[in-house]
Design brief:
Layout lengths: L1 H26 L9 E7 L3 E3 L2 E3 L3 E8 L3 H31 L6 H17 L4 H63 L6 H17 L2 E5 L5 E5 L3 E5 L2 E2 L1 E6 L7 E6 L4 E3 L7 H36 L22 E2 L8 E6 L10 E7 L2 E6 L4 E6 L6 E2 L6 E6 L7 E4 L5 H4 L16 E6 L13 E2 L17 E7 L12 E5 L5 E3 L2 H4 L3 E5 L5 E6 L7 E6 L8 H8 L8 H4 L7 H41 L3 H37 L1
Antiparallel strand pairs: 1-4, 2-3, 5-6, 6-7, 7-8, 9-10, 10-11, 12-19, 13-18, 14-15, 14-19, 15-16, 17-18, 20-27, 21-26, 22-23, 22-27, 23-24, 25-26
Helix pairs in contact: 1-12, 2-4, 2-5, 2-6, 2-11, 3-4, 3-9, 4-5, 4-6, 5-6, 6-9, 6-11
């Protein structure tokens, strides 16, 4: 009876364990990360008898954790991509909502400014119109500051979230390191059997880690898992855990770099990080935030410099040449902290029309050689100082560099010409009379030099324009007189008609009314680059005078020129290599369009990745998730098997009692 009793007891215990496992599954059906388990049964070693091998019952050979590592890896990978795109889309949407909002965007402020400038051009002597222009100028500056503050706030949020994310990665990594140690110890104690619940906890932590950054797993023979991030950085090796941190970037103190620290030391791995929330933050910063703030700064420089240039070519209501309306930006190259030499670099704005929205890196090649790299497309400019210091470069992308002192090979400087321009722009003018609506020079007809009467010919001299302020206003003499003569050089032969110039540059200007009466333009470069056009047929001795525009309150020529800047292509000349290609408002529209397109693309990609993640999670759940209907059926099956096993024991007991009774008789 001992054999059948042992068989019954082994079955009873085995199915009791099966019931325990099923109950464990049911109890954890809603536990996050739990993988269902099942009890594995196998036959015990049979006993040899004279008539062959007799079965000796059943035993529990293990408790299996039902999972699929391939599907788990797919879920982690999809989770990393989904988290990256979701965060990238979230930050992009925040910026897009600001730039495209008609109430807080820049475009309405630009339009209001140019509208006010046109009103001044319509009535240049009106103080109320000038006061409105002053107000709109201040509003435009405030709008630049507000938008730049949004960029700065988002940059601060990115920095803060990068710091909190790296701290969260460190916490999870420490927990994984301890779990690795516990799993290794548990496997050793159990003689090689897996601690299923501990492994579920590890899978759950790995899933949480994949939300923060892209990871790869390499199992060890002892049951521990090594975890790598970025491009092969070993975050977890068994129970040994490295740490992540952040610090201000060596190329831009306003943003953070990711620092990886292990037993070897600390190093920057920002450009090696990808996936998860860290990847989303870096993508947003590199693809939208930095280029967007640069483009906003480019617009600020564009309108500030173009309006200032034209303002300084005019006369204000006080009769003085115009002064700057807006402040000029400063460009401050940032030296790499690892520079060895004491070389210094400064940068100056030369032509805003050729500026780009890119950042630049200046690197020493040793000796007199330097390379300037435009980081947006990696275009390079070779610089050879020839051993001359300080050395000023030729114009490159609208700016010049001055290098003072010889650099050591590898010394670097980072240059961001437009990054802070929207923050730096300010209103310089405070008096509405200071807007230079009038041109500095005007022309009038004088009396004929021979008759003393009014000019007799039909010649007309158009009002002059200027391109500079050299030698303006005119002094000693304060006018330039042009007198027409058929024999301008006075040699007695009327074959060289033109104007004799008195004052200013002097000399003569050729003009033949027979062949050039339709119009001809002249320029005096030394006097503000003044240009003027003749047309018609003058009479002998007719005179014209170019003079300072004194009491020109009603003159609106310069105001019209400033209002016309709105329609002129004034920016991004370097992108075409020929001439400026876009207006100021088009440059801002490019920013809005670029951010909007990237935001829309991010939203689409985020939804697609979320759907893919859900599909992978459903597939994994179908394999490792707990099905309560299935577990209920197992309960009935194991209960019946348990009862049958108990019946076997009962029968064995009955047979034993019968045998004992027979012996007594």
């Amino acid at each position: 009876m001992a054999g059948i009793l042992d068989i019954g007891v082994s079955a009873l215990l085995s199915f009791q364990n099966s019931l325990n496992t099923t109950g464990h599954n049911i109890a954890n059906s809603d536990t996050e990360g739990y993988s269902r388990q099942r009890t594995l049964l196998s036959t015990q070693v049979p006993q040899l008898s004279g008539y062959g091998w007799l079965g000796s019952g059943v035993k529990v050979s293990g408790v299996e954790r039902i999972t699929d590592q391939f599907l788990s890896t797919q879920v982690r990978s999809a989770q990393s991509v989904s988290s990256q795109l979701a965060l990238y889309s979230d930050y992009a949407s925040r910026l897009d909502n600001v730039l495209a909002d008609p109430n807080i965007g820049l475009d309405p402020a630009l339009q209001d400014f140019f509208n006010a400038m046109q009103v001044v051009a319509d009535d240049p002597a009106s103080i109320p119109s000038r006061q409105v222009l002053l107000s709109e100028s201040g509003s435009l500056v405030d709008r630049f500051h507000d938008l730049n503050r949004r960029f700065t706030d988002l940059r601060l949020q990115v920095n803060q979230q990068m710091e909190s994310t790296t701290n969260e990665i460190n916490d999870i990594a420490q927990s994984l390191g301890r779990l690795n140690q516990s799993i290794v110890e548990a496997i050793g104690i159990a003689g090689g059997d897996d601690p299923n619940d501990l492994m579920d906890r590890r899978e759950l932590l790995l899933s949480e880690l994949s939300k923060l950054t892209d990871i790869s797993i390499v199992p060890q023979d002892d049951g521990a898992w090594n975890v790598f991030i970025g491009k092969g950085q070993a975050l977890i090796m068994g129970s040994n855990v490295a740490t992540l941190g952040t610090r201000p970037s060596l190329s831009d103190v306003s943003q953070m770099d990711v620092i990886f620290t292990d037993s070897v030391g600390s190093r920057v791995i920002t450009d090696q990080m990808s996936g998860g929330e860290i990847g989303g933050l870096l993508d947003f910063r590199d693809r939208i935030l930095d280029p967007g703030q640069n483009q906003l700064g480019l617009v600020a420089i564009g309108i500030g410099e173009r309006i200032n240039d034209q303002q300084q070519l005019g006369m204000d209501l006080n009769g003085a040449l115009g002064s700057r309306i807006f402040s000029s930006p400063t460009i401050l190259p940032f030296p790499h902290s690892g520079n060895v030499s004491a070389v210094s670099v400064s940068a100056s704005l030369v032509d805003s029309g050729n500026l780009t929205a890119s950042d630049y890196k200046l690197e020493s090649g040793g000796g007199d050689l330097y390379t300037l790299t435009r980081l947006s497309d990696n275009k390079t400019f070779a610089i050879n100082t020839g051993g001359t210091y300080p050395y000023t470069t030729a114009e490159m992308d609208g700016m010049t560099l001055q290098i003072s002192g010889a650099a050591t090979l590898g010394d670097k400087f980072f240059i961001r010409p437009t990054r802070n321009a929207a923050e730096q722009i300010s209103l310089q003018i405070t008096d509405p009379r200071g807007f230079a609506a009038a041109a500095p020079l005007r022309v009038r007809q004088a009396n004929n030099a021979d008759s003393g009467s009014l000019n007799a010919g039909s010649a007309v001299l158009a009002q002059p324009s200027v391109t500079g302020i050299a030698n303006l206003p005119l002094t000693a003499p304060a006018s330039i007189t042009l007198q027409w003569r058929a024999d301008v050089d006075g040699n007695g032969t009327a074959d060289d008609p033109g104007f004799r110039v008195t004052g200013g540059p002097g000399g003569t200007v050729a003009y033949d009314p027979v062949t050039e009466s339709g119009g001809k333009t002249f320029t005096f470069p030394a006097y503000g680059g003044v240009s003027f056009s003749f047309s018609g047929i003058p009479s002998e001795g007719d005179q014209f005078i170019i003079e300072n525009n004194i009491n020109g309150e009603g003159d609106n020529r310069n105001a019209l020129a400033m209002a016309g800047i709105q329609q002129q292509n004034t920016l991004l000349g370097e992108t075409s290599g020929v001439a400026e290609t876009v207006t100021i408002q088009e440059a801002y529209a490019m920013l809005v369009s670029d951010v909007g397109a990237k935001t829309r693309q991010a939203e689409i990609n985020s939804k697609a990745s979320e759907g893919l993640l859900q599909r992978h999670q459903t597939t994994l759940s179908s394999v490792s998730g707990v099905n309560l209907d299935e577990e209920a059926a197992n309960l009935i099956r194991y209960q019946q098997a348990y009862q049958a096993s108990a019946q076997v024991i009962a029968i064995a007991s009955s047979l034993f009692d019968t045998l004992i009774g027979a012996v007594r008789r």
